[in-house]
Amino acid sequence: EQSEEIDGSGQPVSVFIEAYSPLAYSEKLNISQKSEELPLALMATNYGSKLNRFNLLQGQYQVKENRSNVGRQWLWVAGVAIFALLLSLGHKSTQLWQLNAKQEQVKQSIVSTYKQAFPKTKRVRVSTIKSQLNRELALLGGVGDREGFLAMLAKVQPAFTKVPALKPESLKFDGKRQELRIQATAKDYQVFEQFSIALTAVNLTVKQGSQSNQGDQVTGSFSITNKVVNKNKSTAIKRSNKGAS
Questions:
Q1: What is the topology classification, in CATH, of domain 141-230?
Q2: Does the pLDDT of residue 96 top 90, yes or no?
């Protein structure tokens, strides 16, 4: 038999039920009784290719992969190695940053010192500062023997520190004669005398040039050389000492 129901449009709808097991209140339904079958067999028959969407192995029935202890140990070793590598990279990065900061400080110090020595210089490049320094030294008087010139400056520097009132205007160095010529200005003649005494105190021979009074300042010059020891005199002293012995 068919059971009919009325849908919303007023048309009768027949409902058939295929039952593979006894149902409650089956006397009120239009049931087609089927022979009992296994649930999985029914699923395979009705769903076919759609079975790959179903996975009954869930929860406690889920398949678990068996991992050996050796694999776990290697995972620990790999993790420790990666951590050590990251730690080393961080340490090296910190050292590199510190070195770059120190290098920048040294560059700034070089530029600052150079500008103090040559205040008229507007632009200083650290990469070319050696050539710039050689050019500035050449402008001071065509310095040929730079080692002798720098050594002489090192000896003269304490005198400038001791007599700051003397202001040098120009420096010229004669490499052949190993002589440094200084043109300077001061407020009076006594400053020139004090500077000459300071140079003599560091074992230098000083010859003062002409001095002139220009307004409220005095200009003058110095010729400075290393004090030469009389070799003949020292040899005679040694011989006399030998004769006395």
A1: Gyrase A; domain 2 (3.30.1360)
A2: yes
